[in-house]
## 1
Amino acid sequence: MMKYWRKPLDYDQVKVPRGTVVIIKERCKGCAFCVEFCPKDVLKMSEEYNEKGYHPPFVAKDGECVNCELCEMLCPEFAIYSLTIDEEGGVERVKVTAQQDEMSSVQKESGSADESVEKDIEFKVAIGKVGGR
Ligand code: SF4
Ligand code: SF4
């Protein structure tokens, strides 16, 4: 079959962005938009249930995320987002800070932290390169 596209001239110099996906399972309503539209098929729906009784997605192809943020834009529940992985393997901090702000506002409003947000931050600290100043 004839190909209708060409390789860009600077193809060898193009660096494919890398990302890591964070899923806040307890916020998920199981709509599967993120799974359906991820261009790299990174995500799949899991068999497990969250507290609301929905199946959240999981990362099926670790290391394949290109940080396009489509899942993040499509998710109606703000339950998923991606973080940039830099060339040294470090994870960006901007969204982590936003999440920490969100957690403290939840704490102010309700007197206690949203457990899913707290776990999410723990996760990002666990995957490294974030948390310490
Ligand atoms: S950021 Fe893009 S490539 Fe990564 S999981 Fe989301 S939709 Fe897929
Ligand atoms: S788009 Fe959001 S709510 Fe829908 S399955 Fe994915 S994480 Fe869950």
## 2
Amino acid sequence: MPANRIAPLMAGEALGERHWLLTFHHPETAREARAGQFVMIKAGTSAEPPLRRPFSIMAVDPERETFTLLVKEVGPGSRALCGLPPGGVAQCLGPLGRPFTPPPTGVDALLVAGGYGIAPFWLFAQEISRIGGRARLFYGGRTAADLPLLARFAESAGAVVGATEDGSSGHRGMVTAPLVEWLRGTKTPARLYACGPDAMLRAVAHLAEEWGLAAEVSLDPWMGCGVGTCLGCVVRTQAAGDPRARYRCACTEGPVFDAAQVVWPGEEASSMRRTAAERGVARAEG
Ligand SMILES: Cc1cc2nc3c(=O)[nH]c(=O)nc-3n(C[C@H](O)[C@H](O)[C@H](O)COP(=O)(O)OP(=O)(O)OC[C@H]3O[C@@H](n4cnc5c(N)ncnc54)[C@H](O)[C@@H]3O)c2cc1C
Ligand code: FES
């Protein structure tokens, strides 16, 4: 059950100029969070800024009752969190939302992260390893500064392929290029998981369709409340066999969705939306 608490900052670490790892004390999130879930959080106890902001839960430590976020400073809410002193407090509600579904036995998890979209995959890689599965991370950004966890992920969780648009780290170009290279070279059944900018999520969803793979994407819409009341986070989805697209709250029914059900902005809902079996997913997963 999500808990609404004052959460003290236990540790903060700067990663380069704009990213921070922030560890807060919050027993319920530490005990219950699953990869893909998030917290709604804001620094301090004052009314400014008025709304909490959503951040993916990156790591948990149930014994110490703490969880860790990877925060990129982009505006007032994230800047106030990154500026908290040790022992400073935040208002925190979590864990919230629908997590990623671990892959079935024998199916590899191909994790595709853009920028801070790596956060939920830290926890997910641990969950997959605990059930004896295998994960491989494709981690992209504009420049090396957008990949602050590249080396640490490689040390702690294993296989990582980096890609940057300017070539300053890993492959030069989009992160989907090494992913396609990998898909061409492997016969192991795989499932795709993606978290990052919309354009990347959409590209991964289309690759999944092309390769007949199941895929989940973690969407990143604006969120006001995190609990299904403000309707600020609605996204269009369409289930297989449903003739109409429907609006769903990303905070309560997501942020993780079946990629085949997302109707991307500018795309029309289709009366021909196919089931997973029709898309060849059963074959791809053996
Ligand atoms: C489910 C979920 C999980 C998230 N996980 C993380 C995470 O692990 N780490 C992290 O750093 N951020 C994460 N975010 C994004 C984070 O919530 C926003 O960056 C934050 O709300 C910005 O608040 P702000 O007050 O600092 O900036 P604002 O003043 O709200 O925004 C500053 C600038 O950032 C842009 N911006 C704001 N929100 C987003 C967004 N969601 N996507 C793209 N651009 C945005 C605005 O358009 C504006 O240009 C997540 C968002 C969602 C929905
Ligand atoms: S953020 Fe308010 S309904 Fe989802």
## 3
Amino acid sequence: MNPQKYINRIQRTIDSYFTKDTVIDALFISHFHNDHILGVTYLAKKCDIKRIILPQLTEAEKLAMFLEDLCDLDYGDSIDEMAKSWQTIFSEKYDRIEVLRDKVNVNDANQEIDLENLQDEIKSGQRVLFHGKWQYIPYNSPVKNVKVKELLDVAKEQCKEIFNGDKISFDELRKYLESDVNRDKLKSAYNDVFKKEKLNETSMTLYSGMLGCNQKCERQCGKAIHYANRYCTLNCLYLGDFEAKMLEYYNGLMEVYEPYFKHIGIIQVPHHGSNNNYNANLYSSSSPDKSSILHRICLVSADSNDEYGHPDEDVLDGIRKEGGIPILVTEFPKTKQVFRIRNE
Ligand SMILES: [Zn+2]
Ligand SMILES: [Zn+2]
């Protein structure tokens, strides 16, 4: 992959949305693949980020993500750019809130927490309130890839230098990677374990929606929904590169988001429309009385000459068959979709 292409495009996109010093109350990171974090350094320079909300990862998972990006990128500026993204996210400057894999329990005292009052960590499925009008519900799936541990063992065996006990020093790792020999050693350790798989199991998801939509939607926009045969486009489910195809992942996701599903009008299609992450159930959209199809907007982050072949044509057809409206959004900033909420 040529990351400069991404970086230029991301910067153009950021410029088309944000003016200098725009305050960003919360930046959610789905996972650490370079196509999801490369813009963060530029964004942090341009805007005033108040806090970063990210999935909690084990050291081994961080190493695996880092190596995966390393194998995907050409060495040189791009590795530096990637390392800078990690540094920005983990810099002292920001409040970081990690989303644990433990799920919020119905008996937990704090079912909802205001964004301003978040501490270092929250449980998966926690409702985070914003200005009493909006809610964010991040979900960090408890099922993870067993190969991560295997990779850690191989890396410990072959590249002892980067370990300090069980902990990896990412500064040491960066220095270690300056040598071609070391880089090849780590790349082959990674490739031996992971082959061509991608570690998307670490991808966090996010529901972003109007507070109290359950009642309000039926009262205020209920008629509009049926009139226009559309779900309420206020509420969005961001899926990052979530492994929706795998049943255990899908079931876990639905446990958390089931109550919100009939109010979700926009779905960000996981993994840029890849068939490996496609699950038709996500898009099935008959009205509650099964009398009509309610259309959902399905945003796909991919352009028409994506080098990985995203999005998959069968995925787009599948979405359309279920009533979804797929929209490709990263061709140019001109293709951006903006859904504004009127502040009354
Ligand atoms: Zn990914
Ligand atoms: Zn991705």
## 4
Amino acid sequence: MMSLWFWGTSNSDSYKIPFIQLRNLLQYRNENKEVLSITSVSVVLPAYNEAANIEKAVFVTAETLLKITDRFEIIIAEDGSTDGTDRIASNLARQYAYAVHLHSDKRQGRGKALSRAFKAASGEILCYIDVDLATDMKYLEKLITAVSLDGYDFATGSRMMHESDAKRPFKREFASRGYNFLVRLFLRSKLYDHQCGFKAFRRKALFELLDEIENEHWFWDTEVLVRAQQKGYRVMEFPVYWRHGGSSKVDMVKDVKGMGSEIFRLWREVSPLSLFLEKEK
Ligand SMILES: Nc1nc2c(ncn2[C@@H]2O[C@H](COP(=O)(O)OP(=O)(O)O)[C@@H](O)[C@H]2O)c(=O)[nH]1
Ligand SMILES: [Mg+2]
């Protein structure tokens, strides 16, 4: 687990922290001792063809984490990229001691990449953030303190609560509303948004269900939150400011269909009604 004192310098980027900003951060840290060193945090950035965004995502995440804890690592879980993301990620890992690069030549799917990264992570608090930083990073402190100090086991940002401020294309909004409705109905979830790429977990709680998660791609998020609720873990959902990241890796036909069938696969596994129907057969 790396600390501030391992902070490296980069010659090539425009996102490196200038000295004056670093001094302000140090002052902030001195004045806000209670938020510091609460615990160690691992933030995973799942990345597939993110050459345009990955460097900014790592630096903004590091800058934000510095205000929260002095023990953190940032794991770039990258696979299958064909646009040079792998090269950028391995350079970042070489230059900055807090950055780790996990790579696979073949695209793994977002869920598999996340599971693998969490197994390699050393933090007590485990988080992940989509690389487009669609959720405003000002919520990272709230996300982390939910599981480190406030007694929750899982925490997730939400675009679907009354106080949320989220803008995305109509087609995505429509599909997402229908999807979350079905998850609430069939999987008896109490949450409004299962797919927001902004989540934190208490290490022990996540590891207790990680090997039960069958989905290896987009449905991973939903499966984690549904199984967590089924096991009686405390899940915190809170409204966030969220802006669509421009492009998307979601295939609106194939992935939406896949998510639908995954709802019914999980329903068959966890619903008492389906277990009853199976017995009757
Ligand atoms: N490692 C890995 N990351 C992925 C994969 N597919 C998507 N991602 C990442 O998952 C995150 C969410 O993707 P995005 O296209 O922003 O999804 P959207 O916001 O729901 O449209 C991004 O950081 C992607 O790079 C994959 O197969 N492997
Ligand atoms: Mg996105």
